[in-house]
């Protein structure tokens, strides 16, 4: 049976990204196919993120061998499909340096590679993603480096576009759980191919709640607000109305989108509003994991190190002695893809015009919503009247005097499908732990 959902995961593997990848690969073959893992920068530099992705597959090889020898269930999607792993951007579109916060430690996984060198791949994995220098005699890595993924030396945004061209329209969903730089590069290079997507699922932003890296900014969006604004703009009937301004000092080489695109992007947003309450608590995690470590599970041993490193970090930040919990931001997006037909998933009743602040001194990355109670002329009739001699010359008659940036214009602004509730924030941690550790 073909999978219900085929996905590309664009990720910056730190702790919750690793848990999200594990959840996706543990899905049944009927639930999910991971066609590609696109690696980007994030809390740590790009090469650390890539090392963590490769290490995850290395650990899973050992884990599946251990499970097979002990008669335990294997990961379904992992064994049924072999995703491409490709490498993307190393910094934001208009920044020369990475803005990393190292919340997950210097390596992104709280020192797991030093703690468990036997669970980390040899450094020869790097050759899988790099072209050998001209004239060198560098040995080619054998194809058996990993039975579970196919490495690519093509930039990840180009691999995204290739898959979207090769596969039928409306069959591939991108789940973006890191900064949106790779996604923005794909959209800019070939907008029409990019819009063959079935859906773009984004973990990012804070709408009605505070941010997690600034008072109003969430990390993924703040890390590349320009990329987020460009991607969100594709949900608009008029993308130019919400594109980031072009500044004289801008370093961007990405131009505007074509004036007439064939369709709008369907973007489903998982902001901190919904992801933060879905928590995995320290005591529950350790009660589950310790018997598996004693039984010899490589995966349990690996995850215990970075999860308890995370809990220790959260404890130090809270400072009140309360039990720490990890918010399952990224895994929640994967759970949505595995169960998206469940009627308990609820989105806002009407698509929202959410825009990204890209220039603010204190508000970069902020998700801005117009909360004014104002009439929106023409909202019921969004037909664009055109010049009779040139139908391409659209003339819009529903502008409101004094409405700067077209917040009240039904032809302008973004159209975001924001998720507001799941099948159960109290049950998700248990569901995830059972899927991962069976």
From TrEMBL:
Keywords: Glycosidase, Hydrolase. GO terms for molecular function: purine nucleosidase activity. One of its GO terms (cellular component) is cytosol. Residues 7-376 form the Inosine/uridine-preferring nucleoside hydrolase domain. One of its GO terms (biological process) is purine nucleoside catabolic process. InterPro entries: Inosine/uridine_hydrolase_dom, IUNH, Ribo_hydro-like. It holds the Pfam family IU_nuc_hydro. SUPFAM superfamilies: Nucleoside hydrolase (SSF53590). Belongs to the IUNH family. This is Nucleoside hydrolase. The lineage of its organism: Eukaryota, Fungi, Dikarya, Ascomycota, Pezizomycotina.
């Amino acid at each position: 049976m073909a999978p219900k959902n085929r996905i590309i995961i664009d990720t910056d593997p730190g702790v919750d990204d690793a848990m999200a990848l594990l959840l996706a690969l543990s899905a049944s073959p009927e639930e999910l196919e991971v066609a590609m893992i696109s690696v980007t920068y994030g809390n740590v530099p790009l090469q650390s993120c890539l090392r963590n992705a490769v290490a995850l597959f290395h650990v899973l090889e050992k884990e599946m061998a251990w499970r097979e020898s002990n008669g335990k269930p294997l990961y379904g999607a992992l064994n049924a499909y072999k995703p491409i792993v490709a490498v993307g951007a190393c910094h934001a579109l208009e920044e020369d340096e990475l803005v990393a916060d190292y919340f997950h430690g210097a390596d992104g996984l709280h020192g797991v590679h030093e703690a468990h060198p036997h669970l980390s791949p040899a450094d020869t994995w790097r050759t899988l993603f790099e072209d050998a220098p001209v004239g060198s005699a560098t040995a080619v890595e054998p194809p058996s480096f990993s039975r579970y993924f196919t490495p690519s030396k093509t930039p990840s945004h180009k691999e995204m576009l290739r898959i979207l061209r090769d596969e039928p329209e409306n069959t591939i969903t991108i789940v973006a759980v890191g900064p949106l730089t790779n996604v923005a590069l794909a959209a800019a290079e070939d907008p029409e191919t990019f819009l063959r997507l079935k859906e773009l699922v984004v973990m990012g932003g804070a709408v009605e709640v505070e941010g997690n890296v600034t008072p109003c900014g969430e990390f993924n969006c703040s890390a590349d607000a320009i990329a987020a604004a460009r991607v969100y703009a594709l949900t608009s009937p008029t993308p130019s109305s919400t594109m980031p301004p072009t500044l004289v000092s801008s370093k961007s080489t990405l131009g505007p989108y074509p004036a007439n695109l064939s369709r709008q992007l369907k973007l489903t947003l998982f902001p901190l509003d919904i992801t933060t309450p879905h928590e995995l608590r320290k005591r529950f995690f350790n009660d589950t994991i310790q018997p598996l470590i004693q039984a010899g599970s490589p995966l349990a041993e690996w995850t215990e190190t970075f999860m308890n490193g995370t809990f220790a970090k959260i404890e130090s930040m809270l400072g009140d002695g309360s039990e720490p919990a990890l918010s399952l931001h990224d895994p929640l997006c994967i759970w949505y893809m595995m169960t998206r037909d469940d009627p308990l998933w609820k989105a806002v009743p009407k698509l929202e015009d959410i825009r990204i602040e890209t220039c603010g001194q204190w508000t970069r990355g902020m998700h801005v919503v117009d909360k004014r109670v104002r009439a929106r002329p023409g909202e019921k009739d969004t037909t664009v009247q055109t010049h009779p001699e040139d139908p391409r010359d659209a003339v819009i008659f529903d502008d409101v005097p004094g409405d700067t940036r077209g917040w009240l214009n039904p032809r302008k602004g973004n159209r975001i499908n924001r998720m507001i509730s799941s099948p159960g924030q109290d049950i998700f941690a248990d569901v995830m732990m059972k899927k991962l550790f069976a």
